[in-house]
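Colleagues,

Please find the record for the two-part complex below.
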Amino acid sequence: AQKVTQAQTEISVVEKEDVTLDCVYETRDTTYYLFWYKQPPSGELVFLIRRNSFDEQNEISGRYSWNFQKSTSSFNFTITASQVVDSAVYFCALRDGYNKLIFGAGTRLAVHP
Amino acid sequence: NAGVTQTPKFQVLKTGQSMTLQCAQDMNHEYMSWYRQDPGMGLRLIHYSVGAGITDQGEVPNGYNVSRSTTEDFPLRLLSAAPSQTSVYFCASSYKGIGYEQYFGPGTRLTVT
């Protein structure tokens, strides 16, 4: 069965600290995609990144980076030099051959000045 | 493009009442879905559709009905509202393949008293 686990319910950091959000997934499929979404306090869901199961290259976009490791079924998200505007709930999600997008419970990140 | 639109933004129902949450998209996406978001539980899939005339159940379908008569619209019906259906509801759409990210509407906050 598909499952996404985000074990960190809430993380609190001070501005400029680095922070890593963990995501562990389960699927029986060999072809699947992983996603990260951001939900700021305004409530909308914002797509951040997509990664397919055949591409284990790490990705960096500005202060954001993602580490995908199939051996540990993990797709972790790191924010370098965090800023107050990074405060949000972050969701990891999995989409496989069942064509359903399954979300983790989310990690609430609070960045304090 | 308006993207994904949802109406209403807020709704209060009494137990036992029925209502329809509207969702529309103008991106010609085949795939549409409904999620509910509850504190600490992330987004859970209620129903989804891979094209007009085709719908299927997600993780938490009980108490909800959907239909897809056009590509653009995917309404969610609450047949007899219960307090357990108090939640924020998001509609999303994407192209049909598993590698496409979903675009989310702004959400409907529903309270059942």
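The mean pLDDT of chain B is 94.

Comments are welcome before we finalize the supplementary table.
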